[in-house]
Backbone:
């Protein structure tokens, strides 16, 4: 592990479970100083912090923030910089979901989905960029979705938000192309996480199917491999994008979707 890697600080939002936790573990194992973020108290996030700490050999920093609040999102990045002196790698992973027809989706749910998945991405990037530009190095990875490239019914807010995240990614990449900073989006298909598991019951209700039918006929139907993506697959791609050999990859929307968007 190089001293340069050891000195770099990475923030992973929504990293107490699922994809975010897998990413935090992988970055910690790769030698970065990882900041874990979630809605829970530090005590309630203890199991996740233990997992990340086991990879790093030291306990990670944990910062609570409700990313539905723009000031809290911007403040999260600022607090990382205040406590650790820098912020080199940002992984915008936090996201929420609501399954409902457009005309039945409560406006409050629309607003919260957009705030957590899109607005927080903007606020955190905005806070992190000045330091990255000053050092001439930075890595931004936005966890989007296959739904950032394809639409599905009953997911209007999520699909709209993930399309927007891909657009934001490309814009930031163009603006920072000569600054030693890369900005990319990873677009996973269905990953077996607590978020996806929670969707099964909602999808069953909307489609009038059993939960087993939802998994087989709805969730995995778009993925030719007919299997869920594993969080570790997304984590490994994220880690690669933070490295020097990925310095020419920027503005990309990288699919990990079992062939979904190949169709």
Residues:
């Amino acid at each position: 592990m190089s001293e340069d890697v050891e000195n770099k600080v990475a923030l992973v939002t929504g990293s107490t479970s699922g994809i975010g936790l897998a990413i935090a573990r992988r970055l910690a194992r790769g030698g970065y100083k990882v900041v874990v973020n979630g809605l829970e108290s530090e005590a309630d996030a203890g199991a996740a912090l233990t997992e990340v700490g086991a990879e790093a050999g030291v306990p990670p920093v944990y910062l609570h923030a409700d990313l539905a609040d723009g000031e809290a999102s911007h403040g999260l990045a600022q607090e990382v910089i205040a406590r650790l002196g820098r912020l080199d790698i940002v992984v915008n992973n936090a996201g929420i979901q609501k399954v409902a027809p457009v005309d039945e989706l409560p406006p409050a749910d629309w607003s919260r989905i957009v705030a957590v998945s899109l607005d927080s991405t903007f606020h955190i990037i905005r806070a992190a960029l000045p330091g990255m530009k000053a050092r001439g190095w930075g890595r931004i990875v936005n966890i989007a979705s296959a739904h950032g490239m394809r639409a599905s019914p009953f997911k209007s807010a999520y699909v709209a938000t993930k399309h927007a995240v891909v657009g934001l990614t490309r814009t930031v990449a163009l603006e920072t192309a000569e600054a030693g900073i890369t900005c990319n989006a990873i677009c996973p298909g269905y990953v077996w996480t607590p978020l996806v598991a929670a969707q099964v019951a909602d999808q069953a209700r909307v489609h009038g199917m059993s939960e087993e039918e939802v998994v087989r006929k709805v969730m995995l139907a778009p993925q030719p491999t007919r299997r869920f993506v594993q969080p570790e697959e997304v984590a490994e791609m994220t880690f690669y994008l933070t490295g020097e050999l990925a310095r020419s990859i920027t503005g990309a929307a990288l699919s990990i979707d079992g062939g979904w968007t190949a169709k």
Remarks:
- The chain has two domains: 3-189+230-247, 191-228.
